[in-house]
Amino acid sequence: MSLILAIDQGTTSTRAIAFEVRDKTLSPVAVSQIELGQHFPRSGWVEHDAAEIWTATLQTCREVVRKAGGVARFAAVGLTNQRETAVLWDAVTGEPLHRAIVWQDRRTADLTTRLIAEGREPAVQAATGLILDPYFSATKFAWLLDAVPGARERAVRGEVRLGTIDSWLIWKLTGGESHVTDASNASRTALMDLRTVEWRDDLCALFDVPRAALPGIRPCAGVMGNTDPALFGRALPIAGSAGDQQAALIGHGALNPGDAKITYGTGAFLMANVGAAPVASTRRLLGALAYQAERRTAYALEGSIFSAGSAIQWLRDGAKMISESRQSEAMAQGLTDNGGVYLVPGFTGLGAPWWEPEARGTVVGLTRDSGPAHFVRAALEALAYQTRDLLDALAADGAPPLKTLKVDGGVTANSFAMQFVADICEVEVERPAFQEMTALGAARLAALGAGLLADLEARPTEAPACWKPRMAAAERERLLSGWRRAVKAAIIAAPDRAQEPGG
Ligand code: ADP
């Protein structure tokens, strides 16, 4: 019994991966994946079918158990999931009462705007680390309770359940025995006190979410329930769970203050470990719980870049300056420098630390010498400048200085971009050979929770790729001042926010 069944329930797919635990290392031995249907019933609305998520989870788990040689070889289940997505289900029938509202969904913007206008944000931020935004689960829970007739009254009586995807899956996996969530997922609802790691009655009242319908909060490692024996032929303990970004942090082994990871996919997600006490951000980074395990709680600061790989997608599919993403590396290398051209990829607004939702993509510095290669190079360089802005915000918030920046995601295949990140951010960049950090983190938590590992310390199977800073300081400063002028231009060009309703 040395295998862990890791479930990775993501926004676009559901996956199961079997990991073998041996000598403190975890190696993948089998994988199964099913794509997930996306529903867009209105502009700004995004839904998933929770029943479909459950069926896909069961199917991928059963396939992996079979491929890995049967359930007898498994010691435990670990879980990681898309965060914030809200599910409402019937405690008696076990059926979802509405489609799940996905984290990207903006339908509760009016409610958060009203709460901001009422001056509620500082208290919410002080308690939870989060800003008031439709992103987080609380307003989504409230919307579901309003939309389903009688749901709020039934919630008070304990007849319906609310939870994020982890809670929904644990409830289904345990045959309705356990209604729990882990501390990292709970920290993204806007209902949990970041210090006490408990639901807050005042926040439940503010968002009108009855506490009786919420799951119990558990540490990220430790047994949260046992799977229904009918599902896999034998009960397995669910021994670890964390939200996707936190699981990736653990997968990278970023366990100490000053450790940070950034995932460069379509967007980019930075999570920096700040240690045993939460840090209140003055730069609109988000305070988060990193994980709770081995009787300690670690905290993090988070920041996101809205457009990272999507800028490369745009060069390929929109501007048609490249035909494949990987061409971008050679094109950028082919220039000796950026020729003074900067691209601010504000396609969907600018995230932390600028928070300019109305900003749009902006290119500055074009001359008669500029060509497609300058656009490509500027898009790749922008990854590094945006990362630097996040790291500067972290430093300004008093986060511990970074040791190395651990990276994963599709864009990290680009060595030019990774070297440029090291140069502009003045930090060593490290990319692990095995890229499935999210599933690995969930497996490691479960291995700890099931007693197969003594701690979360990681020993990678293969050496990581490393990029060390080597750019002269004067050059870096020259480039950064060009970038800052470009950001200013993007912000000046944005429509006036004062004209926006509620702006
Ligand atoms: P997600 O999980 O958000 O779908 P992935 O981690 O799969 O994203 O990364 C996909 C992104 O990586 C795409 O936006 C793509 O443009 C970008 N990408 C892939 N290969 C490269 C490359 N060699 N250079 C730059 N960007 C790349």
What does this structure look like?
- This protein has 2 domains: 3-245, 2-Layer Sandwich (Nucleotidyltransferase, domain 5), CATH 3.30.420; 253-431 and 463-497, Nucleotidyltransferase, domain 5, CATH 3.30.420.40.
- Residues 498-503 have low confidence and may be disordered.
- α1 (50-67) packs across α6, α10 packs across α15 and α13 (372-396) crosses α14.
- The longest helix is centred in the C-terminal third of the chain and has 25 residues, at 372-396.
- The strands form 7 sheets. Strands 16-17-15-14-20-21-22 form a 7-stranded mixed sheet, with helices on both faces. A 5-stranded mixed sheet has the order 3-2-1-5-13, with helices on both faces.
- With 503 residues, it is of the alpha/beta class.
- It is globular, with a radius of gyration of 23 Å.
- It is built from 16 helices and 22 strands.
- 34% of the residues lie in helices and 23% in strands.
- The structure holds adenosine-5'-diphosphate.
- Adenosine-5'-diphosphate is lined by residues 265-266, 309-310, 312-313, 325-326, 328-329, 409-411, 413-414.
